[in-house]
Design brief:
- This protein is an alpha+beta fold and 233 residues long.
- It has one domain.
- Helices cover 30% and strands 19% of the residues.
- The strands form four sheets. A four-stranded antiparallel beta sheet has the order 1-2-8-3, sandwiched between helices. Strands 4-5 form a two-stranded antiparallel ribbon.
């Protein structure tokens, strides 16, 4: 099976973006979180993304953004699972990486996915990681959710993108709790502030995405229609 067919399958299952990285592009992965630490026979990583509705950024209520985020996670996991099943029909072994499941890495004091989805996406040519630690894609900016599948066949990799972020530091200045002061985001500080239970409405919610809002590249070319609404905020 070639890379073109692989992408056709992924798009048919509902992905909006798809790219491929060869295993050699993961040499900088943290110990224990390399694709080979998950699938020892891995030769390629298929990264994919689904667009996230941009209207959620301009809502006064945090509920639409929160609920969309919670709904897109099982969608991504279902796409990855169905992709693996389709590939097995062609006798190709694949393993899905959960979209929103982290574990504690005692070596670095951070929570990590089995492999970094944003680094996999960057390695697969979908976009580049910005100062705010989010992946930015030319098509959708940072309004994209990511998934990945490990494959035990060598597939032709996509070209890497030129860096999109220009380090304007707007996200750094917009962060209400200074979680972006250092080159590596203060993960725990961000999570403690942005995610949690709202006692007033008795509901779990996401109250902050200011780094995403302020980024000049947050919408990408295909979401530019809403720029006027974002500017009015």
């Amino acid at each position: 099976m070639d890379s073109k067919k692989v992408k056709e399958i992924m798009y048919s299952l509902g992905a909006d973006l798809c790219g491929i990285a060869d295993i050699g592009r993961f040499s900088d992965a943290p110990k224990g979180y390399h694709p080979l630490d998950v699938l020892p026979t891995c030769k390629s990583v298929v990264s994919f993304g689904c667009r996230f509705p941009v209207g959620t950024l301009i809502c006064k209520s945090p509920i639409p953004y929160t609920r969309v985020r919670n709904s897109v996670t099982p969608k991504m996991d279902a796409i990855a699972l169905d992709f693996c099943i389709e590939m097995e029909k062609s006798e190709i072994v694949c393993v899905p990486i959960p979209t929103n499941e982290s574990q504690w890495d005692k070596n670095t004091g951070r929570y990590r996915s089995l492999i970094s989805l944003k680094h996999a996406a960057q390695a697969a040519g979908l976009g580049t990681i910005g100062r705010h630690s989010l992946l930015i894609t030319p098509e959708f900016g940072s309004m994209i959710w990511l998934g990945a599948v490990l494959c035990d066949v060598a597939l032709e990799p996509d070209k890497l993108k030129e860096n999109i972020c220009d380090n304007c530091n707007l996200c750094v200045n917009a962060c209400p709790i200074n979680a972006l002061e250092s080159p590596e985001m203060d993960q725990q500080k961000c999570w403690n502030y942005a995610f949690g239970d709202d006692e007033e409405i008795q509901s779990w919610r996401i109250i902050c995405h200011k780094c995403r809002d302020i980024c000049p590249y947050n919408l990408g070319a295909k979401n530019s229609f809403i720029k006027g609404s974002m500017t009015a905020l």
